[in-house]
Specification:
382 residues; 29 strands
Length: 382
């Protein structure tokens, strides 16, 4: 379609524009970012310094008309926690509430307007992942995963932990809810497995296998699917820690990355890995990362050392390496309203990569920062 073609063209020429820069308040690595899906306007960031910041990234007339002076987007508000903020998540139905997880074992519910804590849960584990279903109507569950092997589910209506999901043998590194099945949760773990859960039954109904040994091409993936005990002992999505699980917007594909540096994309209708060789990412540190897939699942955006790699999903080719960060990139996301990519890194910075087809002047574009390839050494963090 014409809309798809336009959005693909916009993504293929991303640049950092002088009137679209974020003034980061973080004094250490920025670990996570999240854009709310009600207006695609408000951005959250969390850092190792314990700070959570809120930004309004919507373009106004003064910004678009500026041709000579750079306009910095400053935080609307910020709050500091006692521990490193490892993950942030928006309430799915409006932007008046959000959630955070931190390495001091706290899962916190926030009032966005007041930037105040509403409720806080102390968990025994370091918290690595907090997620809420983007389409849930019959339930209001939040999944919380961390350094233990258990996924906890919290119900916003009761303010309590309702039940736990047991199956992983090591820490939970990433969780995501299906955008088309409100009761399906996917989790990645340090044990190398990626599990599909039916939260109504608290059971795994699929474990992804990189060898595709157990799934027939005609098999339709549903929460009623089953696997044997032998499967759970042998199936692995990655050789080592799973660093990211991310659904495509249409829910038809699942992106996973691992400490083995591999990028894998799975057909969620049958649970099979696509037979495509993707470039290996340079991911030396042991933290989870945050990747993104474009609206029509044409491109993957993934942290790759201090660059953001843009990869063609169906050919596996590296389209470009987006370089401006001085240290390792931790997270990236796509704004579906503007086709902008936003990234954050260990250099304390949050960067907006903008397409040229935004009505900006030629002078704006000529002042943009060029994209180039570059690499730097990484460090490990337990």
């Amino acid at each position: 379609s014409l809309a798809r073609t336009i959005k693909i063209v916009m993504l293929e020429d991303l640049k950092v524009l002088p009137n679209r820069t974020i003034e980061s308040p973080h004094g250490g690595p920025v670990c996570c970012i999240k854009l709310e899906n009600s207006e695609n306007r408000f951005l959250l960031s969390g850092g190792s310094d314990g700070m959570i910041a809120l930004f309004d990234i919507q373009i106004n007339s003064s910004q678009t008309k500026s041709t000579t002076n750079a306009t910095k987007i400053e935080p609307i508000s910020a709050q500091r926690m006692s521990g490193c903020v490892s993950c942030v998540e928006w309430f799915s139905h409006d932007n008046g509430m959000f959630f955070s997880g931190s390495l001091d074992g706290r899962f916190t519910v926030w009032d966005t307007n007041e930037m105040q804590m509403v409720k806080q849960f102390q968990i025994d584990d370091h918290v690595f992942s907090v997620a809420m279903s983007p389409i849930a109507s019959a339930q209001s569950l939040i999944s919380v995963g961390g350094s233990g092997s258990i996924i906890r589910l919290f119900d916003l209506r009761t303010g309590t932990s309702t039940h736990c999901l047991l199956g992983h043998s090591q820490s939970i590194t990433s969780t995501r809810w299906s955008p088309i099945h409100e009761n399906v949760l996917v989790s990645g773990s340090k044990d190398g497995t990626v599990r599909f859960w039916d939260v109504r039954k608290s059971k795994t109904f699929l474990i992804l296998d990189s060898e595709n040994n157990h799934i027939r091409s005609t098999h339709t993936l549903t929460p009623s699917s089953r696997f044997s005990d032998e499967d759970s002992r042998t199936f692995r999505a990655h050789n080592g820690m799973v660093k990211c699980v991310e659904f495509s917007p249409d829910g038809l594909h699942l992106l996973t990355t691992g400490h083995d540096r591999c990028v894998r994309v799975w057909d969620t209708t049958v649970g099979k890995k696509l037979p495509i060789n993707y470039p290996k990412l340079k991911l030396a540190h042991k933290r989870s990362i945050q990747c993104a897939l474009s609206e029509y699942s044409d491109y993957i955006f993934a942290p790759d050392d201090k660059t953001v790699a843009m990869i063609d999903l169906f050919s596996g080719k590296l389209k470009m390496s987006m370089k401006i960060h001085l240290e390792a990139v931790n997270a990236c996301l796509i704004n579906p309203a503007t086709q902008e990519v936003i990234s954050c890194a260990d250099d304390c910075q949050i960067v907006i990569w903008s397409p040229p087809l935004r009505g900006l002047t030629h002078q704006n574009q000529s002042q943009s920062v060029p994209i180039e390839d570059d690499w730097q050494s990484e460090y490990d963090e337990d």
